[in-house]
Amino acid sequence: MKHIFFFVVLFSCIALAQQKPSDDFAATVKKEFLRSWHDYEKIAWGHDDLKPLSKGYADWYKQPLFISPIDAYSTMKLMGYNKEAVKIERYIIDSINFNKDIFVKTFEMNIRVLGGLLDMYELTKDKRILQKAEDFGKRLLPAFGTKTGIPRYWVNLKTGESKGDTVNMAEAATNLIELGVLSYYTKDPVYYQAAKKAVRAVYQRRSPIGLVGESINASTGEWTDTVSHIGCCIDSYYEYLYKAYVLFHDEELKDMWDNSLRAIDKYLAEEKNGRLWYGRAGMNSGTIVSGEVTLYDAYFPAVLVLTGDIKRADKAFASWDWLWKLNHAEPMVYDYRKDTVTDAMYDLNPEIVESAYYLLEYTGKEKYRDMAKEYFADIMKYCKYDIGFTSLKDIRTKERGNSMPTFFFAETMKYLYLAAGGAPKFHLKDYVFNTEAHPFKKNMFNKKEIKKRLGL
Ligand code: DMJ
After folding, report:
1. Contact status, residue 198 vs residue 149, Cβ threshold 8 Å
2. Which residues, 6 or more positions from 248, have their beta carbon under 8 angstroms from its beta carbon?
3. Phi, psi for residue 328 in degrees, rounded to 5
């Protein structure tokens, strides 16, 4: 009996010891999120970005749009910071007015502000928040009024005037999720139809071998940059083909994704020193012209996980893990063919943690949690500051930059917290994240209703 008691105690201690690191991990991420949030509140409340080094703030345009709080909201809710979240809801309902005579970036406003507001509505079910989201969506819509249906780069929130014909693929076709969710909740297909038209316009202009270029003229539909890759700034075009198919069961998107992936695998995938990368090739020739990859490309393993290709996701992810470990952070641009860092900045980006989290959730393998934990330890060591966190101007020297982007609240801290096991009731399989990590719950969207409301 004594022996049994001894072993029970021993095993409980081992179990506790094994659990503790990720408990600490989650608790520290949560604490650090709140510390940074309080810094934002103290110094930058009402403005778009906190500038940690100069202990100031910056707005994207001549009038602020409250981007940090809107982006931070869904992470706050996940962490259980309800008091802070209610303060943001109140501000949205009582104080925010989007009738501003400013030209804003269509793409960024869609993924951060519209995505954030729609998530806020999904979590609160407060119709006043949906009205704000709808109002904002309506103000973005005129950007899509081009001959091709591809949105222009800038749109004026007050006048609806749009400008900027050259857009990259991410800017052209990362709207399906936000505009689809908006159509669903407002029962007005006009939004999803606009997003779909833009995606079709891009897809139909793919080359005979199935690749798209990096940028296009929204008015004429002519390619303005014919280099093809999966990274910045094509990335979320591919990401949304698959994710919007999952959320809305839109089979046409699945075909687009399948055909695109075939071309990506055939022409862009390349192994170097046993590591899998996706390079840059001419969209017509399919010949790789450069081995430059951006840290944004680390989202791709997460999408592969969703498609069920864990083996390839793991292989592609291993390259990013290797690259992170070289300097304890990722460079903005790395050339795997030349093995050189071409742009050494790290802007507190989330993609590597995002993929670690997806792999952890779908495989259950603790090694991915350990990796995420290591990235966080490095971020704590090199980016934590007495005010929030800072970017790094150079990952080799660890010289600090003066930025803490809004996606640090929305994405990096959220994926770290999820990877740490901080929200055990939240299951990735129940959600689709937009590219800014705002999660939409699949069972909120009824298949029959989707057809009607999105006009499928
Ligand atoms: C985010 O704003 C979004 O994830 C976007 O799709 C590209 N990457 C940044 C963060 O790195």
Report:
1. yes
2. 176, 180, 192, 445, 450, 454, 456
3. 60, 30
Q: Which residues contact 318 (CB under 8 A, 6 or more apart)?
A: 275, 276
Relative to beta strand 162-163, strand 280-282 is: unpaired
Q: What is the DSSP letter of 161?
A: -
| CB burial readout 330-355, b (16+ within 10 A) else e | bbbbbbbbeeebeebbbbbbbbbbbb
Compute the Cα dihedral for 353, 231, 215, 219 and give only its sign.
Answer: negative
Q: How far does residue 8's CA lie from ligand 1's centre (Å)?
A: 47
What separation in Å is there between the alpha carbon of 296 and the centre of ligand 1? 7
Residues whose CB is less than 8 angstroms from the CB of residue 99 and which lie 6 or more positions away in sequence, other chains included: 157, 158
Residue nearest to atom 7 of ligand 1 (CA): 296
Strand partners, 382: none
CA distance 265 to 311: 14
The 10s digit of each residue's pLDDT in 186-236 is 999 999 999 999 999 999 999 999 999 999 999 999 999 999 999 999 999
**Angle at the Cα of 186 from the Cα atoms of 184 and 187, rounded to 5 degrees:** 60
**Greatest CA separation for the chain:** 82
Cα–Cα–Cα angle for 120, 103, 297, rounded to 5 degrees: 65
Centroid of ligand 1 to alpha carbon of 177 (angstroms): 15
CA distance 221 to 169: 12
Contact of 51 with 403, CB cutoff 8 Å: yes
Q: How many CB atoms lie within 10 A of CB 424?
A: 8
pTM of the model: 0.95
Instruction: Tell me if 37 sits within 8 A of 372, measured CB to CB.
Output: no
Cβ–ligand 1 contact at 296 (below 6 Å): yes
| 154, amino acid identity | W
CB-side exposure of 49: number of CA atoms within 13 Å? 19
- Which tens digits make up the pLDDT trace of 428-439? 999 999 999 999
pLDDT, one tens digit per residue, over 407-417 is 999 999 999 99
Cα torsion 162, 167, 170, 174: sign: positive
Q: Between β-strands 333-335 and 340-343, what pairing exists: parallel, antiparallel or unpaired?
A: antiparallel
Of 168, 412, 435, the one to substitute when testing ligand 1's pocket (max ligand atoms within 8 A of C-beta) is 435
